[in-house]
Amino acid sequence: MGVVVVVGLSILVSLFIFELSFIVPTYAVAGMWILLALGLNVQWGYAGLINFSVAAFWGIGMYSVALLSAPGSPLGFEFNPGVALVAAIVVSALTALIIGIPTLRLRADYLAIASIGFAEIIRELVSNERELTAGTQGVSIPALLPELATSLDAVFAPDAPAFPYRGLVDFLLVAITVFVVYLFLRRLHISPWGRVLRTIRSDEDLAKALGKNTYWLKMQAFVLGSVLMAIAGFFYAYQFRFVLPETLEPINTFYVWVAVILGGTGSNRGAILGGLTLVAVRVFPSFFINFLALDVNVGAVRLLIVGLLIIGIVRFRPQGILPPRSELIWPAARDGGEKQ
Amino acid sequence: MANIVQMLADGLIFSCIIVLGAIGLSLIYSIADFANFAHGDLMTVGAFGGLVGATEFAKLLPGDSIVFFELPISLYFGLLFGMAAAAAVTLVTERLIYRPLKDAGSIELLITSIGIALAYRAIIQLSFGADQERYEIASQGRIDWFFEATQSLGGIALTQRDFVILVVTILLVVGLHTLLQYTTLGRKMRATADNPSLARVSGIRTREVVLAMWIIGGALAAAGGVFLGIDTLVRPRMGFDLLLVVFAAVILGGIGSVYGAMLGGLVIGMAHELTPAIPFVPVEYAPAVAFALMIIILLVRPQGIMGEAT
Q1: Contact A187, A180 (CB under 8 A)
Q2: Does residue A155 or residue B185 have the better pLDDT?
Q3: Backbone phi, psi, residue A139, to 5°
Q4: Residue A100 CB-density burial (10 A; 0-12 exposed, 13-18 middle, 19+ buried)
Q5: Percent of chain A predicted with pLDDT > 70
Q6: Dist CA B66 CA B53 (whole Å)
Q7: Cα separation of A310 and B117, whole Å?
Q8: Which of A43, A113, A254 to mutate to test the interface with B (most CBs of B within 10 A)?
Q9: Chain B CB within 8 Å of residue A255 CB
Q10: For an interface test with A, which of B97, B107, B112 has the most A Cβ atoms less than 10 Å from its Cβ?
């Protein structure tokens, strides 16, 4: 439960620095990044799959919401959010299968290149198929459960306009999801399934020799991680109320990678810490630049920080800040399959 | 028919850029043993280096009136400057980042190279702004005599600068071929690419070879970047957007094979420009076609057409 303490402390500290109307949506976004990092951790941390198509699965989640439940959708369905969530899960699982069947047999670095190629094809489809996705115009999305937001406001701030608890619904839903997913993944990690996956990561031939169908197990990890990313996309759509094909750009995939390797590859606690750090990396540069009234490009500063973080982590702390604890597995397995 | 010939000609010019990127990427993939995701942004570094060089030389030279093939002479100096700049950047990167990581596996190096790519792009955006730039060159029309001469094929419209790109690329490729085949350094490079351990026990200082390889790869990538800038625009994302297409060429040619990279670059460049000829595929999908081709190659023939030189 150390994680709960860390998250609680970080919220407490930020309460002293920022206003509540800033903190609530920011932590909602943080929860969304944590879901992405947890998903990638299942693929890279557990199974050793170098997936560079994170942004594509994230995009499948957000476009499921935009196309199936938003009034502005070019398809004009306006289903309720539950349908969009189910669609996000089903479509991302199917896409993961379609991408995984040919590519999971490939060498690690080939998988990296092939998956980023797939992600770019999906992005090209989203930005060019205008009749289906509205292309670069984007789609705006209504609030998630607006009645709940109104009633929360009525309870907590009856006198104020609907401002103080903006994003509270998003935050609560993400927080509950992260909590449930975390418990589930923690259980999974110590289960026989998790042990076999870690064995595959450190020595796939050994796992094969033990009679494990490594291809199918890697596929399960790939699909599970991809579905978590799509769920993160579902929340993104409601948090930002607008989706664009730009969000599917590879840079967002690399943001999630930073979160996972910074937190500690294979560690769910690490993924949570990484997700929180990532939001700090995204928030603080613009905060400081505004504060010091500097004339620099915020996007470039963020890019530089992320780039230097990646270089620095691999050089100085390859196991990340919170590496997985010692487990019922031989020590070399923790370091991952570096010796191949 | 006429359309196809024109597309092939355009494809040839685009192939030059891909080939120049692919050679360095393939060399690094085989000698340093990792997929270098920073190679595309190295092309961007070269293109911006070329921009700086061309601007500075234009100031030095009187009136900038000397023009070769409708390109100001300062641009040729800019090209050389860009190549030198990119080579210097690769050497600094190698010294500061890759050398301390010499015990790391290829996956760690791959992840590091993404960090390097982002850092290159960030530094370029901080120094030049995030907007697009262009080289100071007048717009050119097609060469009339060439168009007339190819009238039987329906006429090929190429500009003078297209010919400059083609000729300089051929010169660079022939130069590299000569270096690899007829010099001691070239023999050492081929030996190291083929089997690094054997090369080391044979007394080859592989360290020098690796440095030479970074310099050559960086300079060629920069030339590709400058040509891409001449062909289109100079943008901070230009190299990264091209990276996957270059990877496609490398994998198609066979990792580690310089000649494979040339052939792969030619095929992928053509495929990219021939997209309009594919039925039901709109022209916006040109990169997607190259990626799809790359994924198919990875699945069907991961050792490439020229075989892997390991």
Answers
A1: no
A2: B185
A3: -130, 130
A4: buried
A5: 91
A6: 16
A7: 10
A8: A113
A9: no
A10: B107
Q: Kindly identify which residue of chain A lies nearest to residue B255, measuring between CA atoms.
A: A110
| Sign of the Cα pseudo-torsion (A12, A18, A23, A26, in order) | negative
| Mean pLDDT, residues A85-110 taken together | 91
Burial category of B147 from C-beta neighbours within 10 Å (exposed 0-12, middle 13-18, buried 19 and up): middle
Would you call B112 and A314 a contact, using CB atoms and an 8 Å cutoff?
Answer: yes
A126 in Cβ contact with A243 (< 8 Å): no
CA distances (Å), origin B215, targets B28, B88, B185: 11, 7, 13
Q: Which residues in chain B land under pLDDT 70?
A: 1-2, 62-65, 70, 139, 304-310
**Greatest mean pLDDT range, A5-14, A217-226, A299-308:** A217-226
Do residues A35 and A280 lie in contact, with contact meaning Cβ atoms separated by under 8 Å?
Answer: no
| Phi, psi angles (nearest 5°) of residue A78 | 55, 45
Phi, psi angle pair for B68, to nearest 5°: -110, 125
Tokens of B163: 């010919």
Strand-pair category, A139-140 with B67-68: unpaired
pLDDT tier for residue A147 given thresholds of 50, 70 and 90: confident
CB distance B113 to B36 below 8 Å: yes
Confidence at residue B195, expressed as pLDDT on a 0 to 100 scale: 81
User: Is it the case that residue A87 has pLDDT exceeding 60?
Assistant: yes
Longest Cα–Cα distance in chain A: 68
Find the residue in A nearest to B299 (Cα): A102
Any B CB within 8 A of A101 CB: no
B34-92: per-residue pLDDT in tens? 899 999 999 999 999 999 988 888 777 765 567 777 677 788 888 999 999 999 999 99
Taking Cα atoms as reference points, which of A225, A252, A175, A239 lies closest to residue A10? A175
Are the CB atoms for B225 and B238 separated by under 8 Å? yes
Average predicted confidence (pLDDT) for chain A: 85
Is B264:B304 a contact under the CB 8 Å cutoff? Answer: yes
Structure-token pair, residue A55: 């942004």
| pLDDT higher at A331 or A220 | A220
Nearest CB among B104, B119, B291 relative to A117 is that of: B291
Instruction: Report whether A251 contacts A14 (CB < 8 A).
Output: no
Q: Which residues of B touch A259 (CB under 8 A)?
A: none
